Amino acid sequence: MSMRKIIYRNIRIVTAFMILVSMFYFTGYEVCASEQLTGEMQSVSANTDAYDSKSTTGKKVTVSAGSTVLVVGEESGWVHIVYKGDELYIKKDNSSNLVELQNSETAQELQEQAQIDKAWTESYVAQMKAVRNARIWRMIIILLIVSVTSYVVFSGIRRNAEASKEKASETNANG
Fold first, then answer.
1. Residue 168, H or E segment
2. Contact 154, 3 (CB under 8 A)
3. Model confidence band, residue 14 (pLDDT cutoffs 50, 70, 90)
4. Could you tell me the sign of the dihedral formed by the alpha carbons of 168, 170, 171, 173, in that order?
């Protein structure tokens, strides 16, 4: 196999390897915002059992009296709540334990905190997108630099090989 074919084969192998590595690098990295839940903040008047699914066979969590929960909605005999970051379900029969917050200052504070949290989350997602875009551009620039450098180097090698062949031809013709 000639030197030229070996060089071009190696260039193709390196290029394919770089493309493969970049594909794995970028497909495994995803930025997404969590789903925004809306609802009404309510207080729990008595200890209430909640489940991680709409079934009493699911994982049971006891929501303590005096706790504050976000009531997301009602679904087929169950009240969907968020308690300590977990999405849970309370049987509709036990929903009488949920009462509106008595202290409007507490409700206002919770709403303000929710707005701050939402703004923070949006900012974080925007930053992660910027980081992802920076990585993509960094890889593109590296690939371009490697490609241009490879082209220049291998073009020089090819020209030298052709010049050597011409010199050898001239020497054989003259000699």
1. helix 104-174
2. no
3. confident
4. positive
In this structure, what is the dihedral angle of CA atoms 99, 105, 106, 107, given to the nearest 10 degrees?
60
Q: Which residues, including other chains, have CB under 8 Å from residue 44's CB and lie 6 or more apart? A: 63, 64, 65, 66, 67, 68, 69, 97, 98, 99
- Specify the 3-state DSSP secondary structure of 94: helix
CATH class entry, domain 40-102: mainly beta
Counting beta carbons within 10 angstroms of the beta carbon of residue 2, is it exposed (0 to 12), middle (13 to 18) or buried (19 or more)? exposed
Q: Where are the domains of the chain?
A: 3-30+125-174, 40-102
Is residue 30 scored above 70 in pLDDT?
no
pLDDT tens figures, 101-157: 666 676 677 778 878 888 888 898 889 888 888 888 888 888 888 888 888 888 888
- Between CA 88 and CA 66 the distance in angstroms is 17
Contact 148, 50 (CB under 8 A): no
How far out from the chain centre does Cα 72 lie? 26
Q: Residue 131 in 3-state DSSP?
A: helix
